[in-house]
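ping. complex inputs:
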Amino acid sequence: MLVVAGLGLCGTRDISVGLLREAEDADEIFLETYTSVSPGLRVEDLVSVLGRGVKLVTRKDLEDESARTVLEVAARGKALLLTIGNPLIATTHSSIVVEAAKRGIKVRVLPAPSIIDGIIASTGLHVYKFGRVVSLVFPEDPSLKNYPYTPYSVLKDNVSRGLHTIFLLDIRADEGRYMLFREASELLLRLEERFQENVVDENTLVIGVARATAEDEKVFAGRISEAINADLGNAPHTLIVPGELHDSEIDFLHYKTGRPVEVFKSWNAKVNAKKKQSGTSPTWREP
Amino acid sequence: MLVVAGLGLCGTRDISVGLLREAEDADEIFLETYTSVSPGLRVEDLVSVLGRGVKLVTRKDLEDESARTVLEVAARGKALLLTIGNPLIATTHSSIVVEAAKRGIKVRVLPAPSIIDGIIASTGLHVYKFGRVVSLVFPEDPSLKNYPYTPYSVLKDNVSRGLHTIFLLDIRADEGRYMLFREASELLLRLEERFQENVVDENTLVIGVARATAEDEKVFAGRISEAINADLGNAPHTLIVPGELHDSEIDFLHYKTGRPVEVFKSWNAKVNAKKKQSGTSPTWREP
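pong. complex structure:
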């Protein structure tokens, strides 16, 4: 049997009763830490909470070797594969599940809080107001000539509908590189220069969430021109360009960031103007 | 201090180490079960896992009375408010956090797996492919004359972009009414009759997830004309109208539901035709 289980957002805090039970009789426990980053996660703490040793697996182990070691254990007993956040968010994990199923191995997936849950808990943003989520990767070339259009286009599309856009920021754990909120803010401004479709300007409101829900989480709200200098501390960071904010979202952000309610209200006016300009059909119509 | 913590998706399985720690020194533990439903959750099991008694709170306690009892405990000591799924998904919870903050009470929010995490774990659908999430409520009048346009319009918008649409189905725990997948399927067909914008037909592919990630979860994939007769057992259920499916999503759904890969491939062809028809701008463009 293969059990894929999530560790959630920070350290050992989100480890569930169900995961502890699975760990008890697992033949081997594997830990994958290259697709995501968990603030405060130390292998020795994990070992102490689980009461068991864990084996670190690399990208090579899981992708190039088709997770051979993990599946061999799963074929003859029970392998527990631990991932940060919610499992299957990385396509690597979903491929392993399919591979196991093909070999007739039973699979169980245990959910855990994802970064989306963390953002909701840390910002009070409504789940119904999120547009498509998108990743922002480090530019390969400084000119952005070959930079993917997708993040910019998703933002444009979401803004025109008044929806929030979550940017998941690049994590290259094997290289020790983690995109920070201020770098992401700068990148968005540069994408505007590159594509010039009037999606971002220096007054664009951005929300930065660092180490969502952790003891030392930081939530920033302000203009992108301020955000490029904001120091939110260590990774992981997330950047959100909000759409139209509901009154209760505004109340929450005001409480969380200390920013005056007016900042969010004037942003709403701007989003509304963009919605009208783009001629998006209303999401509510009188019957 | 007010601690709002999620119980996750089913029974006591997703209770976290962090939540157990918070429960130890809480002055009072409150449980709210009217905004959501957790299969297999029994108060006696919860009490046994927490090693503490819990007090059930009703909608009236939290909404009409402005959570007075909870905040009184929080003001003089530590109140732990337990919610199903991830906290703050219900706006009630976010209002309580704001209310506590206004009164100068410290707040901590502990994340937990939400139904979105459950869907990802149970279906292998990619988080990047979700469009806006929407709720489907029970019709007040059989003619659907005053039924909200939003769910239909969100689906139309997502389909035209090739994105997946998650329908969160109505839960009226206080009345013991839970919308089932087959009822939701029927309602979608009736919304098509009502609004007639060619969004749904009897060949529309729908995915039904019942009791996501629980031991007895069921995942269904098939035409909506079959779905209206599909019995997936007890609530909670979720309905997804997929957009364009990635190869790895198809592999996963094939493994999970046993449906031939061709079912999903021909659905992709249909989604693609709709995307072209609606003239949605591509989300990728050559630089």
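Chain B has eleven helices and twelve strands.
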